[in-house]
Design a protein that fits this description.
- The model has no long low-confidence stretch (mean pLDDT 96).
- It is globular and about 75 Å long.
- It has helices spanning 18-25, 34-47, 65-73, 83-91, 108-117, 127-139, 178-187, 208-226, 252-264, 280-283, 320-324, 412-416, and strands at residues 4-7, 10-13, 16-17, 29-33, 53-58, 77-80, 99-101, 121-124, 144-151, 173-174, 191-197, 233-235, 273-278, 287-297, 307-311, 330-332, 342-347, 356-363, 370-373, 394-399, 402-407.
- It contains twelve helices and 21 strands.
- By secondary structure, it is an alpha/beta fold.
- Bound molecules: ligand LLP.
Length: 425
């Protein structure tokens, strides 16, 4: 995260002091770097230069309009999983023909809206979905462009909650069922088969699962085309991991090089457009969660037992530690070398023992100090909630020496706005 740097002991986001953001906007606040997001996208784009590759951004990682707008203007496509996400792409003037619609449970209303908008492709995940989509498109006098999400049964070697390409997962059409599903899709009047896709999981830190999934897909493309169904694109999903602690994922460039090498040897693969649906690897290391220490709670006997730093961010703001025992780095916003360092658990104000954000960290802290929870750009704000009636955090994007509030802190009025009491008798 080279956009985060200390200058004279104070942590800066690009050229803006974190202290200033906290003073102006308050805490907890997610802080993103425009340069880091663009840098990540451009690395993918440059690695694919001269090829027919569409890099989609998986909105679920962080759907803030400013981020979508930034990436749309760079030429990204988008991977969406709901009507809400489609509305976000359309709200910034994104090109619907560069949108792929993923997800196992698309409702009829979502299909209608996506067809109306003209999304580029539906990534279909089951036989009943094929029927529903065909009927829906036919009733609208349209044909839906479809790809079938194949579940290649490849182990992504990642956390079980974020592994999606194994037989026991709910995702995709089983590999052995794929051929008959393609035949069915090709025969349905409301559908036009255009591609094939897979997504095997997230936070993948090795090349081999990507290559294994690619091999299975390439093998299938031959069998599919042998049955007279022509494919135009190959969508390999997202999933490239990032460094939270000491993981060493393949670089964006080496992933592409390895994939291209295999694809180029394959007659169908090399003719098809290649697509990706990256989320975490575009935004994960481009954001931190800025938070203030409310209290330091010392153990009854000094030096024995846990010391807690109770901060104003909680599991409702960053749920990854509670849900996956995820590790996020913690940086003091002002280094205080004169303070003794102590081992703290960083916890939030929410009434759950699972409400922790980092454990056993050596830090030099006083009440009122600011901390930055690192690598919080992906699946931070997007998974946040109002648990304990906590308004959602603000979001800020830094651009060199300026910053913009890209989502203001949720107000208490907004928190209550959609609710009502029963009529009084
Ligand atoms: N495409 C599909 C169909 C997906 O299901 C996902 C993520 C992506 C693309 C983007 O994957 P990425 O490039 O971000 O790995 N909440 C979890 C991650 C869940 C990922 C769900 N699907 C976390 O915080 O680690």
């Amino acid at each position: 995260m080279d956009w985060l740097e200390y200058q004279n002991g104070a942590l800066f986001a690009e050229k803006v002091a974190m202290q200033r953001i906290a003073a102006d906007v308050g805490t907890p606040t997610f802080v993103y770097s425009k340069a880091a997001i663009l840098g990540a996208f451009r690395e993918f784009r440059d690695a694919a230069a001269g090829r027919d590759v569409l890099i989609c951004y998986a909105l679920k990682a962080n759907p803030n309009l400013a981020i979508i707008d930034l990436l749309a203007r760079e030429g990204a496509g988008f991977d969406i999983v709901s009507l809400g996400e489609l509305r976000r792409v359309l709200a910034v003037g994104g090109d619907p023909s560069r949108v792929v619609f993923s997800g196992v449970g698309k409702s009829l209303a979502e299909m209608q809206a996506a067809l109306q908008a003209g999304v580029g492709c539906f990534n279909v995940e089951s036989i009943p979905e094929l029927h529903r989509l065909s009927d829906c498109a036919q009733a609208m006098g349209l044909r839906a462009r479809v790809s079938l999400r194949v579940n290649p049964d490849v182990d992504p070697k990642t956390h079980p909650y974020i592994s999606t390409g194994l037989k026991q997962n709910k995702f995709g059409i089983a590999h052995e069922q794929a051929l008959s599903a393609y035949e069915l899709a090709a025969s349905l009047p409301g559908l036009e088969v255009v591609g094939i896709d897979c997504h095997i999981g997230s936070q993948i830190t090795e090349l081999s699962p990507f290559l294994a999934a690619l091999d299975k897909l390439l093998e299938l493309t031959e069998a599919i085309e042998a049955r007279g169904v022509r494919l135009h694109h190959l969508d390999l999903g997202g999933g490239l991991g990032i460094t939270y602690q000491d993981e060493v994922p393949p670089s964006r460039q080496s992933l592409f090089e390895a994939l291209f090498q295999r694809i180029d040897r394959h007659p169908i693969g090399s003719r098809c457009r290649l697509m990706f649906e990256f989320g975490r690897s575009l935004v994960g290391n481009a954001g931190v969660l800025l938070s203030r220490v409310e209290y330091l709670k010392q153990p009854p006997v000094p030096g024995q037992g846990k010391a807690f730093a109770i901060i104003d961010a909680a599991m409702n703001d960053l749920m990854r530690p509670a849900l996956y025992e995820a590790w996020h780095g913690v940086s003091e916003v002002q280094l205080k070398p004169a303070l003794p360092s102590q081992c703290f658990d960083l916890v939030g104000p929410v009434c759950e023992s699972g409400d922790w954000l980092a454990r056993d960290r050596e830090l030099r802290l006083e009440p009122g100090d600011l901390v930055a929870l690192r690598s919080a750009g992906a699946y931070g704000m997007s998974m946040s909630s109002n648990y304990n009636s906590r308004p959602r955090a603000a979001e800020v994007m830094v651009d060199e020496d300026r910053y913009t509030v890209i989502r203001r802190r949720e107000s208490y009025e907004a928190l209550l706005a959609d609710e009502s009491v029963l009529p009084r008798a």
